C-alpha cells in the first residue's frame, strides 16, 4: 500500500496549511479549497492553543512531529515544530477513517523542495 493512502485506499486531501511563529502568531495561512478562508484562520488560531499545550515546558513531548492536534467536523489537524519553534499545521479531510501517523509523516514535499532548489540554482 502506498505511503499516502489510508486503509480503504482513499487518499487524504490536504485542504489547508498554516505556519505559526515562535510567539504563537500565524505567519501564513493557505486555504486549498473553495470554502471561505475564515474557517482556516479559525483553525490556525485554535491550533495555537493546542500547540502551546503540547510544547509547554515540562511536557514530555520531545518529538518535533506533534501528531494529531484535534479533529473538527470533517478535518483532522496535524502539527510539526522545527528546532526554532516555528510550527507547521496541516489540515486534512478524511471520511470516517483515521490517518495513521506514518501516512502524515510520509507526505511528499518533493515538489516544494524542487521549487526551492531551482531558485537556489538561479542565485548561485
Structure description:
One of its GO terms (cellular component) is cytoplasm. InterPro entries: Longin-like_dom_sf, Sedlin, TRAPPC2L. It comes from Batrachochytrium dendrobatidis (strain JEL423). The chain has three helices and five strands; from the N terminus they run ββαβββαα. The protein is globular. It has one domain: 2-Layer Sandwich (Beta-Lactamase). The relative contact order is 0.20. A hairpin with a 5-residue loop joins β1 and β2 (26-31). The protein is α+β, with helices and mostly antiparallel strands and 124 residues long. The protein has a five-stranded antiparallel sheet with strand order 2-1-5-4-3. 30% of the residues lie in helices and 29% in strands. The longest helix has 18 residues, at 37-54.
| Strand runs, count | 5
Task: Please state the average pLDDT score.
Answer: 75
Please tally the helical runs, counting DSSP H or I stretches of 4 or more residues: 3
Radius of gyration: 15 Å
Strand content: 25-35%
Structural class determined from secondary elements: alpha+beta
